[in-house]
Amino acid sequence: MTIQLLQIDAFTNQAFGGNPAAVCFLDDDRSDEWMQSVAAEMNLSETAFLAKRPDNSYNLRWFTPNVEVDLCGHATLASSHALWSEGLLSADEPAQFHTRSGLLTCTKEDDGWISMDFPTRHADWANEPTGMLAALGIPVEEVRFIGRNVDDYLVEVATAQTVYGLTPDFGRLKAVETRGIIVTSRSDRPEFDMISRFFAPGAGIDEDPVTGSAHCCLTDYWAPKLNKPKLVAYQASERGGTIKVEYRGPRVLLMGQAVTVLRGELLA
33, 46, 109, 141: which one is catalytic? Predict the structure, then answer.
């Protein structure tokens, strides 16, 4: 029996940009071990697994090549795009996903952007874990804030040039006990409010191209700081990606675009 599989570039409006995710439509129950093996085979930041429920909503799980994660933005964006583009939902019908982070709802806007209702991830002030700044290559005098949320560390640095210029030692960074590390600053470009990069070698992803879940934290951090509930963010990886965000207290809206680049069948 074959299983439909798509590869979709998320947080971009053109192929080969943003963050690629695989979206796998399950026809029946599959083991955790099988899903982890598929994610390792895909070798992308995340592979999303969708299982339809009787009410036309979907169970959604996300796997990196190494581990299952509790929240993933770009693979959720890819999943909702897949449902609409493959005709499994009409354009005016919301995509609803039951996940380890609760119910996530995506809607397709008139301009083609996809809006995702996600939980906020607040970062409280935290001490630097031993060796983190050295592994990132960030001088102490550049640091403006270190915080920690339920998933990740957040580091604000003084200048955008520091964010652009990071060349982490991923072997050393992997020793930091966390899902990932967000490094951010105010943007030096007028079209964006904030920039960031995201590193998660412990989860099997040295640098994630565009990380929706990190912006659940970044929005909570920057919206009050800049006194702007609506922001435009840029993740400054090699592929790069743009995310529009809106702060709503316990929830955030993440908005992005997506492009299907591959459609196939999984035979295993």
Answer: 46
